[in-house]
């Protein structure tokens, strides 16, 4: 918690998030009807005020009809406009005070607009899914929508019994009454709002690997007609998990699930303990295996170790890109250096206007950021050497497990693993715009 008295918490998305308080738990109950795309929700947020008394604060929530709003059980003054639920408690909340906010909302959920198109709740032909990165979470629930504000979640979804509901975390209960079923999931690990994943669809559930061997429980939720292709495409995910635990440290959550939507998606999407793929990512020929590695790696880099704000997104995407190269190297494919050389050749012919640290909102999802981020990690590997590099990675994910980090935190951490100064390397790869030479 920063303790700032300003509500602005992210330079790229000043309308999202409020740094004057933090949420430590969300309890959300949804009722969803896929046909009319009708959502009704109630939520309780358990929060803590910052270092200054809290006379007002805001949550992010899209254009729903809001019903009851309570703070500590009392009705506050509130307004709900432009995706912000502004709340003024009946009495100011003292600095450091714990408080609860109860909200009821209803309507037809839809994606929120962004420079990258609609984000968040997406109605499918038969069901729905949530893909919120970076600012889509308010499309379906009220939240303090900034990556640094991580909380535990309990999510309950009531929907017609023909549908399977998948959310990140452990399935606590599944209760059927008449024609509807209520699914309750618990995610105890601190989770950013954009990483709360949800999918509702007609799925067959299968297990990957052998959980009896004491590894991470890995499940998949797949349309029946895609199961045979899926079985080949995802056959090596358990081996991926084993490798990444060796290289990055223990898997940071209780379980890992993948969902294949019965629709095409532009790109797969990571969520906490969960990754969402489209039918187009299942071809029966392992054509998207690098993406399977990429999304799995985000469980360490981005989900458990989370960026303080979006200026540091290279710490998510650079490491996930490098994990693709490491999987290739360790599974009989091209080495990381060969992949890095190919990425470097590609970047030399493209515009030189991207800086990894603070790339600006316009370029934060540019493919060049992913490639150059992977190259920066490769340069650090070359500078540290094999043993020190992987020890550095494992220590990074251990020290900051379920925490919040910045580029400065990472550069000071990595510098401890070599006697040679890394300032010139950091300057060239992270802070300057021109592409440095390929690390050799």
From TrEMBL:
Location of the Aminopeptidase N-like N-terminal domain: 133-195
SUPFAM superfamilies the UniProt entry points to: Leukotriene A4 hydrolase N-terminal domain (SSF63737), Metalloproteases ('zincins'), catalytic domain (SSF55486)
Keyword terms, alphabetized: Cytoplasm, Hydrolase, Metal-binding, Metalloprotease, Protease, Zinc
Peptidase M1 membrane alanine aminopeptidase domain segment(s): 239-429
Cofactor: Zn(2+)
Substrates-to-products reaction catalysed: Release of an N-terminal amino acid, Xaa-|-Yaa- from a peptide, amide or arylamide. Xaa is preferably Ala, but may be most amino acids including Pro (slow action). When a terminal hydrophobic residue is followed by a prolyl residue, the two may be released as an intact Xaa-Pro dipeptide
Broad class of the protein's primary localization: cytoplasm
EC number: 3.4.11.2
Annotated compartments: Cytoplasm
Pfam families xrefs: Peptidase_M1, Peptidase_M1_N
InterPro entries: Aminopeptidase_N-like_N, Aminopeptidase_N-like_N_sf, M1_LTA4H, Peptidase_M1, Peptidase_M1_dom, Peptidase_M4/M1_CTD_sf
Family classification: Belongs to the peptidase M1 family.
Protein name, as recorded: Aminopeptidase N
Upper lineage: Bacteria, Bacillati, Actinomycetota, Actinomycetes, Kitasatosporales
């Amino acid at each position: 918690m920063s303790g700032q008295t300003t509500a602005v918490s992210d330079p790229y998305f000043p309308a999202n998030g409020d740094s004057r308080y933090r949420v430590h738990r969300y309890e959300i109950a949804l009722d969803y009807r896929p046909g009319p795309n009708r959502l009704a929700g109630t939520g309780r947020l358990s929060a803590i005020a910052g270092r200054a008394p809290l006379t007002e604060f805001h949550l992010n929530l899209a254009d729903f009809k809001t019903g009851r709003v309570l703070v500590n059980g009392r009705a506050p003054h509130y307004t709900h406009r432009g995706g912000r639920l502004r709340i003024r408690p009946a009495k100011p909340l003292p600095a450091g005070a714990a408080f609860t906010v109860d909200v009821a909302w209803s309507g037809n959920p839809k994606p929120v607009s962004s420079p990258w198109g609609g984000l968040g709740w997406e109605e499918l032909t038969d069901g729905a899914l949530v893909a919120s990165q970076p600012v889509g979470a308010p499309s379906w629930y009220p939240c303090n929508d900034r990556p640094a504000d991580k909380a535990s979640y309990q999510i309950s979804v009531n929907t017609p019994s023909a549908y399977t509901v998948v959310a990140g975390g452990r399935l606590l209960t599944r209760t059927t009454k008449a024609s509807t079923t209520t699914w309750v999931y618990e995610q105890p690990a601190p989770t950013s709002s954009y990483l709360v994943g949800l999918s509702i669809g007609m799925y067959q559930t299968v297990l990957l690997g052998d959980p009896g061997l004491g590894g991470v429980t890995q499940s998949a939720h797949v349309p029946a007609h895609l199961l045979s292709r899926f079985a080949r495409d995802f056959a090596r995910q358990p081996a991926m998990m084993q490798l990444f635990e060796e290289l990055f440290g223990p898997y940071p959550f209780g379980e890992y699930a993948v969902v294949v939507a019965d629709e095409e998606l532009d790109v797969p999407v990571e969520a906490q303990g969960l990754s969402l793929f489209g039918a187009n990512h299942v071809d029966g020929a392992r054509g998207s295996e690098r993406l399977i590695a990429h999304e799995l790696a985000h469980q360490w880099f981005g989900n458990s170790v989370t960026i303080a704000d979006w200026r540091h997104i290279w710490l998510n995407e650079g490491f996930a890109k490098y994990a693709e190269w490491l999987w290739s190297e360790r599974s009989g494919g091209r080495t990381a250096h060969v992949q890095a050389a190919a990425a470097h050749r590609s970047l030399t012919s493209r515009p030189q206007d991207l800086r990894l640290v603070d790339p600006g909102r316009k370029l934060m999802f540019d493919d060049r950021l992913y490639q150059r981020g992977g190259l920066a990690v490769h340069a650090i590997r070359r500078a540290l050497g094999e043993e020190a590099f992987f020890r550095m990675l494992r220590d990074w994910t251990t020290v900051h497990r379920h925490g919040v980090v910045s580029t400065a935190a990472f550069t000071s951490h990595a510098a401890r693993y070599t006697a040679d100064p890394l300032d010139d390397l950091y300057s060239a790869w992270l802070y300057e715009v021109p592409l440095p030479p390929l690390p050799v």
